[in-house]
Design a protein that fits this description.
- This protein is mostly beta strands.
- It has two domains: 2-92, Udp-n-acetylmuramoylalanyl-d-glutamate--2,6- Diaminopimelate Ligase, Chain: A, domain 1 (3-Layer(aba) Sandwich), CATH 3.40.1390.10; 104-283, Hexapeptide repeat proteins (UDP N-Acetylglucosamine Acyltransferase, domain 1).
- The protein is built from two helices and 34 strands.
- The strands form five sheets. It has a ten-stranded mixed sheet, with no helix packed on it. The chain has an eight-stranded parallel sheet with strand order 7-10-13-18-21-24-27-30, with no helix packed on it. The protein has an eight-stranded parallel sheet with strand order 9-12-15-20-23-26-29-32, with no helix packed on it.
- It is globular.
- The two termini are 30 Å apart.
Length: 299
């Protein structure tokens, strides 16, 4: 996903305004996007330790040593923080293109009292939206889904960098939320929009009440998530996994297909496909020794 600017700016101009140095050719910037999807006219950032081996164009906030290979690098000792600074500058002028078309809602959709559906939302055939649910701009929901009471889908995620005074500066989250078919989102569950890409729930995902799905998460088809589970940013969950109630899963982890996370587990490492983990910190356990109540359900 890319987020377009209302009109292009030059990388050189951006560097001048921010007091930074451009390494490589000056080029127009027309969009903001994730590093792995960087386009010729795109702007992104590379955290220290990340290489640009598979990136061959565009403009990137990064360490000066990353210069070359066809990429224009805006030299920065703190690339994510400077990218956030640039977001605020670009939001002020020229501004971001925002979805302003009316919501597209299939005639069969039922929407409960007090629900909020913003511009640019898409809701597919047969979906039910419960009372007081909130669907923010950039949310796309498939067919035959159930969004239960007071669920909030598409609010900004929780991502900050500290400035020189140690004050948190919030990253502007510009992605959306993409939900497949036959998905259930429980009451009072919050699903955050992506930072630069979408947060994604594939078909047949079932989420219970009071859960938190953070920005950039991707939940594989047929996965079931129990009540009060917390998935931090950029967690990837494989197909047909089972996440029991009250689990916490650290950011940027991957759970393989068919993974099982036991009740109350605190997951701090990747979980291989088919593995079962529980405890704090979560550790593998043989299926024959599994605690009662954590067996997977496969739709």
């Amino acid at each position: 996903m890319t987020v377009k600017l209302k009109h292009p700016v030059s990388a050189g101009w951006l560097c001048h305004e921010m007091g930074l140095r451009l390494i490589g050719p000056d080029r127009d910037i027309s969009s903001l996007c994730a590093l792995d999807a960087l386009a010729e006219d795109g702007l992104s950032f590379a955290l220290p330790g990340r290489t640009l081996e598979h990136v061959h164009c565009g403009t990137v906030f990064g360490l000066r040593s990353l210069g070359g290979n066809g990429v224009s690098v805006i030299g920065s000792e703190d690339p994510r923080y400077d990218f956030i600074r640039a977001q605020y500058m670009l939001a002020a002028s020229p501004g971001f293109e925002r979805e302003s078309s009316p919501a597209h809602i299939h005639p069969s959709v039922r929407i409960g009292p007090g629900a909020v559906v913003e511009e640019g939302v898409t809701i597919g055939e047969g979906t039910v939206v419960g009372p007081n649910a909130v669907l923010r701009r950039g949310t796309r929901i498939g067919r035959w889904c159930e969004i239960q009471s007071a669920a909030v889908i598409g609010d900004a995620g929780f991502g900050f960098e500290r400035d020189a005074r140690n004050h948190p500066l919030r990253m502007i989250h510009l992605g959306g939320v993409r939900i497949g078919d036959h998905v259930q989102v429980g009451a009072l569950t919050a699903i955050a929009r992506g930072a630069l890409e979408d947060t994604v729930l594939d078909d047949y995902v079932k989420i219970n009440n009071l859960c938190h799905i953070a920005h950039n998460c991707r939940i594989g088809e047929g996965t079931i998530i129990g009540a009060c589970a917390d998935l931090c940013g950029s967690v990837t969950v494989g197909r047909n996994s089972w996440i029991a109630p009250n689990c916490s899963i650290r950011q940027k982890l991957a759970l393989g297909e068919g993974a099982i996370v036991g009740m109350g587990a605190v997951v701090v490492k990747d979980v291989p496909a088919g593995a079962m983990v529980y405890g704090n910190p979560a550790k593998p356990v043989a299926p024959s020794n599994a605690p009662t109540g954590v067996l997977p359900l496969h739709p």
